[in-house]
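Dear Dr. L.,

I hope this message finds you well. Following up on our conversation about the binding site, I have prepared a predicted three-dimensional model of the protein together with heme C. For your records, I am including the exact sequence and ligand specification that went into the calculation, followed by the structure tokens. Please feel free to forward this to your student if that is useful.
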Amino acid sequence: MKRAAHVAVRVRRWILILAAMLVAIASSSLASAPPDGAPASLTEYRCYDCHRDRESVAGPAFAEIAASYRGKRDAAAKIAAEIRYGIRGGGPWHMPPHPEVSASEAKAIARYILSLDSTDAAAQGTGRR
Ligand code: HEC
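The resulting structure of the complex is given below.
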């Protein structure tokens, strides 16, 4: 009887530890959850602190940015430059410069951002112009 009670305490302790671990995992992934397919550099440089793929937070949603560049020439190069040099658009927030992001990483991020527009269109079945 005494032994069974002891086991029960141990099991309960394990459940508490597991629950604490799950909460830790859940909250750390909430802080900057990289969506599937996003380049790791987006998490590494904390872009998701201010951006989400499909939701405006402090910064515009990446899908919105992609839509605003639709059909523009050199879109990836322009976005890559903005990532590295930052923007001040006059809103309460600005896009800080990220000189630590290499030119090739910035290009890869820009291509990912632009890809969100076409995946959106494909998902809605509208296609691209
Ligand atoms: C401190 C918050 C913050 C962080 C961190 C941040 N951004 Fe931004 N970003 C913004 C804001 C705010 C804007 C809108 C700026 C404006 O239009 O005035 C913006 C705009 C942009 C744009 C818009 C370009 C356009 O032409 O409309 C891109 C692309 C972008 N961010 C990418 C990134 C990437 C990639 C990272 C990580 C390397 C990053 N941002 C990190 C706040 C942030």
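In brief: The domain at 33-124 is CATH 1.10.760.10 (Cytochrome Bc1 Complex; Chain D, domain 2).

With kind regards,
A. P.
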